[in-house]
Write a structure and sequence with these properties.
The protein is mainly beta. The chain is 9% helix and 41% strand. Helix 1 packs antiparallel against helix 2. It is elongated, with a radius of gyration of 42 Å.
């Protein structure tokens, strides 16, 4: 690890004995007077081995007062499990000696209590799970905390005089969780923090946290670097002094940043931010403006100008793009109006949340389902009326025929009898063999042809309610 001494005027020089061996892959650091000699000391977390340990460890370097450091006697704090991804120093048991809290890459935070000589011992109930329902090392997290902790800060968030912890996550789960301190070195996981469930699993990687009163109301707030690698964003969570936080639904892009620092860089009395990463693209400085000076966050809808041309009975669609304005992110609510009768307008694949990384916009699709006209009913023959009466008539005719048979046979012969039988049969059948038919019902119904205008509206209930609409022309032909 390299230590640079400030010479003033923006010039720095290497400190005596720098660089200092702290193990391979150092990833975290905390500063404090760990042995109470009035000189600042360092705690450095590394993922790899060093000359004192073969596993992830925390190296304690005691300051000599001249910019040089000496490893504490007894060697580093060897991690029994996890790794020191994040470190925070504070007096967690209120004995006047600085302690250490560690974000260890698991769903928990480890606490080491200081002895006052630069050495540390695990707190009696450490580690502390970052979820209310899990209570052992490696327990599966629920919606209250990160799946794996990566960053950590210590502050009194609820004003009870005991230091609390905020941990940032990685690998899914919630971006931020709170562990409320009891003042004796013990901590209890708080309920889900910061309305974060909306972007869990996608934006739960929070490599850095910072604490400060960013809106000057006397309550501590949180600043987070949150996002997928390469898509990190700076976001602010405002505290109410009772250990509860609400998002501002505003973000500033900070791609590549993994570390976050605070300071009044322009001397205007307001806290500013500096973010850095492992490459040149990860360096960002954010100057906090005066209240009301920032542009208003909002939404913008685009697309759909080509419209929908459709025939009754078909489905047509058009693409809509929603874009965040001035860093906005938050939940979305969609609606569609203006559809013609006998049709349905729905939004498919419409995003329910606009994420900080969605600066290029997210696509939604408006689909119009129309109804075809009803077709004519089939023409079916009507059954012959009076079938039972015609049978009775035929039987009566047959009886009369038998009575007259002898007389007719003698007077006119067999030919007259045949003619008589044919006439009777024709009368019995109604004089026709073609049945009557029913009339077809008229054609009607369906989506009327014509020109229409759909109105697609997206709303967000945050920031006093944000609303934006766009029209989509429709032709039914």
């Amino acid at each position: 690890m390299t230590i640079l001494l400030n010479q003033g005027g923006g010039n720095f020089t290497l400190a005596p004995g720098s660089p200092v061996a702290v193990g391979s892959a150092p990833v975290s650091i905390a500063v404090g007077d760990f042995n109470r000699d009035g000189r600042l000391d360092l705690a450095v977390g590394s993922l790899g081995a060093n000359s004192y340990a073969s596993t992830p460890a925390i190296t304690i370097l005691l300051g000599n007062g001249d910019g040089s450091f000496t490893p504490v006697p007894g060697g580093p704090i060897v991690m029994r499990y996890g790794a020191p991804y994040g470190l925070a120093a504070g007096d967690f048991n209120r004995d006047g000696i600085l302690d250490l809290a560690v974000a260890d890459g698991l769903a928990e935070a480890q606490v080491f209590l200081g002895r006052g000589d630069g050495t540390f011992a695990p707190a009696p109930n450490s580690p502390f799970a970052d979820t209310p329902s899990s209570g052992s090392t490696g327990a599966a997290p629920n919606a209250a905390g990160p799946a794996a902790t990566r960053s950590i800060v210590a502050a009194d968030f609820n004003g009870d005089g005991a230091l609390d912890l905020a941990v940032g996550g990685m690998a899914g789960g919630q971006p931020v969780a709170l562990l409320m301190g009891r003042g004796d070195g013990d901590f209890t996981a708080a309920p889900p923090c910061c309305e974060a469930p909306a972007y869990s699993n996608l934006y739960a990687d929070t490599p850095a946290l910072a604490v400060g009163d960013f809106n000057s109301n006397g309550h501590l707030d949180l600043a987070t670097l949150t996002g997928k690698p390469g898509m990190e964003h700076l976001q602010i969570l405002l505290g109410n002094g009772h250990g509860e936080f609400t998002p501002t639904y505003f973000s500033s892009s900070a791609p590549g940043a993994t570390f976050l620092g605070l300071g009044d860089f322009n001397g205007d009395g307001r806290l500013d931010f500096a973010a850095s990463g492992l490459s040149r693209t990860g360096y960002h400085v954010y100057i906090q403006g005066a209240p009301g000076s920032a542009p208003t966050e909002g939404l913008l809808l685009a697309g759909g100008a080509s419209g929908i041309s459709i025939q009754p009975g078909d489905i047509g669609d058009a693409d809509i793009v929603v874009l965040p304005q001035n860093g906005f992110y938050g939940p979305l609510q969609w609606s569609c109006s203006g559809a013609p009768s006998e049709s349905t307008c729905v939004l498919s694949d419409a995003p329910q949340f606009l994420y900080p990384g969605d600066a290029q916009g997210v696509q939604a699709r408006v689909a119009l389902t129309t109804t075809a006209p009803s077709s004519a009913a089939g023409i079916a023959p009507a059954p012959p009326p009076g079938d039972g009466g015609r049978l009775a008539l035929a039987l009566l005719a047959l009886a009369g025929l038998l009575a007259l048979w002898w007389r007719l046979a003698r007077a006119a012969g067999w030919m007259a009898l045949a003619v008589l039988l044919g006439g009777l049969g024709l009368a019995a059948c109604g004089g026709s063999v073609t049945p009557p038919t029913r009339a077809a019902p008229p054609v009607g119904g369906g989506t009327p042809v014509g020109n229409y205008t759909l109105t697609v509206t997206v709303r967000s209930p945050v920031l006093g309610g944000i609303r934006q609409s766009i029209t989509v022309p429709v032709t039914v032909q």
